C-alpha cells in the first residue's frame, strides 16, 4: 500500500462509512431496548483499545518512533491544527471546494428535509410510530429534537477537529494502529469517568442478550478499531478534507438500511440529497485527481 493512488483511499473510506452505517443501525436497535448509551460508548472504546493493542505491538514494533509528550497531547486534547491546502486559482482547487460544498448541501437536505413520501409505510413500523407518538407530546418531541441537533453539531465539530489533528499526527507518528489504540485508551478512560458520574445504576453496565453483546463488540473492534485505523491511513495519504468529504455517504447508507431493515419510508429529500452527495463526491474526486496530475508539473 505504498502507492495507493486515488482509488485505494476511496475504496477504504467508502467501506469505512458502510461499516459505520451498519453499526449505527445496530446501536439504534439496542438503544430502543433502553440500553444506556453512555455504557455503550465506554465498552466500545475499551474493546477497541484491547483489540488494537496487540495489532499495534506486532505490526508496528519495528517501525514505531518514540512516543513524545507532544504526540500524546495531540491524541488527548485533539487540538485544532493544520488544514489541507487548496489553491483556488486552479481548476482542481475550485473543483475540490465546489465538490465539498455540494456534499455538505446534500447531507443537509438528507438530514433536514423530508418532502413527499416515495414509498408506502410498513404496517408494523406505522403501528410502532403511532404508539411512540401517543407516549410523547409535541413539547417533548421539540425538546428532544433540539437536544439532538445540539449534540449532532458538537459531534460534527469534534470529528472535524479529529481529521485536522490526525493530519498532524500522521506526519509525526505514522503508526495508525498505535495512535488509534492510544486514542481509544484515552477515550475509554474519559467515558468511564463520565459514566461513573452519570450512571450510578451498575446493573446497567452489564450487557444482556446476544444482540447487545454482538453490537458493542462489533462497534469496538470494527468501527472504533479498524475503521478509525482506515480513516487515519486515508488522512495520511490524501489529507483531512478528502477524507471528511466522504462523510455524507454515511447518511446514504443509513437511509438505505433505514428503509430495508427498520422499514422506514423513503422521502423525496433522501433521494435528492443522496444524488447531490454523489455528484459532490464525483466533482471532489475529479479535482483531487487533477491536482495530483498538476503537482509534478508545478514542481
TrEMBL record:
Cited SUPFAM superfamilies: Multidrug resistance efflux transporter EmrE
Record keywords, A-Z: Membrane, Transmembrane, Transmembrane helix
GO molecular function, one term: transmembrane transporter activity
Transmembrane feature ranges: 6-26, 95-113, 145-165, 177-198, 213-234, 241-260, 266-285
Presence of keyword Transmembrane: yes
Every EamA domain range: 147-285
Parts forming coiled coils: none
Cellular component GO terms, alphabetical: membrane
Membrane topology summary: Multi-pass membrane protein
One Pfam family of this chain: EamA
Keyword Transmembrane: yes
Entry-linked PANTHER family: WAT1-RELATED PROTEIN (PTHR31218)
Similarity comment: Belongs to the drug/metabolite transporter (DMT) superfamily. Plant drug/metabolite exporter (P-DME) (TC 2.A.7.4) family.
Stated name of the protein: WAT1-related protein
